[in-house]
What we know:
Chain A is an all-beta fold. Chain A is 0% helix and 50% strand.
Amino acid sequence: NAGVTQTPKFQVLKTGQSMTLQCAQDMNHEYMSWYRQDPGMGLRLIHYSVGAGITDQGEVPNGYNVSRSTTEDFPLRLLSAAPSQTSVYFCASSYGAGLAKNIQYFGAGTRLSVL
Amino acid sequence: DQQVKQNSPSLSVQEGRISILNCDYTNSMFDYFLWYKKYPAEGPTFLISISSIKDKNEDGRFTVFLNKSAKHLSLHIVPSQPGDSAVYFCAASERGSGGSNYKLTFGKGTLLTVNP
């Protein structure tokens, strides 16, 4: 029962570098999303996807790109890292329909530092 | 503008007593509410939820109460145990297109400490 798997767990970048945070789920969930957690800010939605080939912006999308080519994977790309993107990033997934539609299952997170 | 508010950053209770965590919301379109629990260096885990058509949902030691007129919900933990010490997030969603609620709006969280 892998659930939602995020890689890497830790990453240090220099300003201007690019990287991709990986997220994979094995629960055949339709809905996937990316959040960032900053001290005292709770979790804020970056991007989300309601199915393969469909993505949309959340509350704080600037500086991030996403794509959803398969049901299982939802990578988050930082195009040109900035110190303001230092945060803990969580990927989540849910069924997207029915009574359990809103119960999102989270990965363990990726802690990113941008110097 | 914060749509989901958890006004208490922290709460400390004695083992065996009741813990009450509070959450207020401003968006009247929210129709589903969830509580998540988060330990350090782990992702949030789902705890309990409630639909807006109910005013109470219970699961073991955990009960969530919803007061729609006051736009307020609370999580009761009875009895509290040291293992309950964690950050608790309140989250809410509103009915999206196609009848499916996709996006969660989170509060800032409350750190619960249960002392032995």
